[in-house]
Amino acid sequence: AQRVTQPEKLLSVFKGAPVELKCNYSYSGSPELFWYVQYSRQRLQLLLRHISRESIKGFTADLNKGETSFHLKKPFAQEEDSAMYYCALSANTGNQFYFGTGTSLTVIP
Amino acid sequence: AAGVIQSPRHLIKEKRETATLKCYPIPRHDTVYWYQQGPGQDPQFLISFYEKMQSDKGSIPDRFSAQQFSDYHSELNMSSLELGDSALYFCASSPSTDLQETQYFGPGTRLLVL
Fold this sequence. Notes:
The complex is a heterodimer of chains A (109) and B (114). In chain A, strand 9 and strand 10 form a beta hairpin. Helix content of chain A is 0%, strand content 44%. Chain A contains no helices and eleven strands. In chain A, strands 2, 5, 6, 9, 10 and 11 form a six-stranded mixed beta sheet that branches. With 109 residues, chain A is mostly beta strands. Chain B is an all-beta fold and 114 residues long. Chain B contains no helices and eleven strands. Chain B has strands spanning 5-7, 10-13, 19-24, 31-37, 44-50, 53-57, 64-68, 74-78, 87-94, 104-105, 109-113. In chain B, strand 4 (31-37) and strand 5 form a beta hairpin. Chain B is globular and about 40 Å long. The termini of chain B are far apart. The interface between A and B is medium-sized, with 21 and 24 residues.
């Protein structure tokens, strides 16, 4: 069963516009949720994790247990935000880890 | 659709032993990435290969080596295992023809070193 779903494979927004990358998960326990970013031809990097509740590069994500979602948001997109974004879920104290299929974000100048 | 296959799914070794983890990418994917995730930690990038050549290197210990074969599968060889090597090892693959360079992740190999 697909644990992490990212419904949008491609997303384009104009510079300065708000952006939201959707992530829904399926897990009955208390998972940890993460967002990872991969800039062109670079390695995967951790962007943020829900338990730290921090904002990185202007991005935030709130875990909504009722909707089982962990959408990534940024109020004003920048060109350097263009990248591939992966939502991930860690379950059973890290024994299981699931990645979504990724969303490619393009910020248009 | 075929996904990334990792073998074995679980492995138990003792200190100072060796282990070999295998990753079979999705057909026609020519790039493979290896990640290590320790208990309660975030995945750490180890190494990647493109067309059988090492393309990037991360925090891979000298005790580890990896290679990609002609059929694009990759093997991570781990020697002189230490307790701290206990982790979940992920492999991901991607096709170089994908402009987005989407990485498709395998289910991971859980290594326990006793």
